[in-house]
Amino acid sequence: MAAYRNVDAAARYVITRSLVRGVLSERLGIAPAEVNIRVTDLGKPVVAGNLHFNVSHSGDLITVAVCRERAVGIDIERRRDVQRAGALISRWLTPTEQHEVKSLHAAGFRESDAFLRVWSAKEARLKALGVGISGSNGAEVSQVVAVALDDLLSSAIVNAEEYVGAVAFA
Length: 170
Hints:
The structure is a single chain. This protein starts with 6 loop residues before the first helix and ends with a strand. By secondary structure, the protein is α+β, with helices and mostly antiparallel strands. α3 (about 95-105) packs antiparallel against α4. The longest helix is centred in the N-terminal third of the chain and has 22 residues, at about 5-30. The chain has helices spanning about 5-30, 85-90, 95-105, 110-130, 150-155; strands at about 35-40, 45, 50-60, 60-65, 70-80, 145-150, 165-170. The protein has 5 helices and 7 strands; from the N terminus they run αβββββαααβαβ.
């Protein structure tokens, strides 16, 4: 926590870690202090007990996805104007993902919203595979199905329209 320069970020770190331990302890049937979270060589947090999980936060929202059967990835993004969206699209998105952004934009989404939708799906897929954006070359990202969280968000949180996200299973 001391590594954070921003008090809000430090508080979010503590809240996120507490939430994760609480959710995992409930699923594993053990006390939160007994949850042993390790990190893979590629940085993905894992826990024993054949339980897969992933965490994302943006703005004031923290999400935790848990699955017993398969690796899971989740990403949530607060809607905002993305500076240099075009440059990010060109730099980080595959041709297929770039086409998705163009299709969403043509369907009436602002460029930032289209980018964030495609970006959250990409992040969820990468997180399910256990690799980061830098490890995406060679990862079978296109083979991992990501599902938008629109319906779940709108039924579960206030101000859901402020967020986009996706969950993916590998």
